[in-house]
Amino acid sequence: MRRYFRKTSASKPELAALEITSDDRGAPLCAVPNAPLFSISHCAAGGLCAVGLSGRRVGVDWEMVAPRSRELAQLFSCPGELPPDQDDPRSQTRLWAVKEAILKLLGLGLAASPRDIQTHPWLCLTGRARERWLELGSPTLCPAVTQIDDSVVAIVHTQPRS
Ligand SMILES: CC(C)(COP(=O)(O)OP(=O)(O)OC[C@H]1O[C@@H](n2cnc3c(N)ncnc32)[C@H](O)[C@@H]1OP(=O)(O)O)[C@@H](O)C(=O)NCCC(=O)NCCS
User: Fold this and answer.
1) Nearest atom within ligand 1 for CA of residue 107
2) What are 125-135's pLDDT values in tens digits?
3) In 80-91, which positions are buried (b, 16+ CB within 10 angstroms) versus exposed (e)?
4) Kind plus residue range of the DSSP H or E element containing 31
């Protein structure tokens, strides 16, 4: 956040002023004037804060690659999203991370079902996630996933406001 203010404005808030609180759904908030929208994730590999430039909304998730049971995978995946070998931990983790990043961008966390986000054959939202997306003005969602050693980072952002 300090780097953001250093790059974008003359104001350079002290670290202590950048207090992070949460809204009633758990989404992070920063009360400093002109603070950007941002998203936080932490896992055993470390912590990550992504900041949305130019009014973009962002959501991030950083997850360790770990096997999940087929039953759990079926709870968060929609038909066709996982390869036939549903037990592949990398595919499961990538899918979970993308869904969680989108749920964070929407400010919902687990207040919506990960199955409200369908990623295959194209990105499509249903249920509570779709309602929230419509409330936000139907922004285009741009997801990216990368692997770092034995962890996966998913970042999703909206298009900048014109
Ligand atoms: C969002 C959530 C799924 C992330 O869980 P996780 O993978 O264990 O943790 P991550 O480190 O990736 O993310 C945690 C961060 O997500 C963010 N976050 C939490 N709820 C969020 C929401 N509704 N919208 C956007 N971001 C949210 C917070 O910044 C949190 O950081 P903090 O723990 O330092 O406050 C989970 O924290 C959540 O849904 N919390 C909301 C409360 C809730 O619904 N509980 C379950 C009831 S069934």
Assistant:
1) 24
2) 999 999 999 99
3) ebbeeeeeeeeb
4) none
* Section 55-67 average pLDDT: 96
From the CB of 17, is ligand 1 less than 6 Å away? no
Q: Is the pTM of this model over 0.90?
A: yes
pLDDT of residue 106: 98
Residue 162 pLDDT level (bands cut at 50, 70, 90)? low
Query: Ligand 1 centroid to 106 CA: how many Å?
Result: 12
Cβ of 6 closer than 6 Å to ligand 1, yes or no, is no
* Domains of the chain (ranges, CATH numbers): 2-158 (3.90.470.20)
Q: Which of 110, 133, 153, 157 to mutate to test the pocket of ligand 1 (most atoms within 8 A of CB)?
A: 110
Listing DSSP states for 84-149 in one string gives S-TT-HHHHHHHHHHHHHHHHHTT-GGGS-GGGEE-SSS-EE-HHHHHHHHHTT-PPEEEEEEEET
Instruction: Compute, in angstroms, the gap from residue 10 CA to the centroid of ligand 1.
Output: 32
pLDDT at position 83:
84
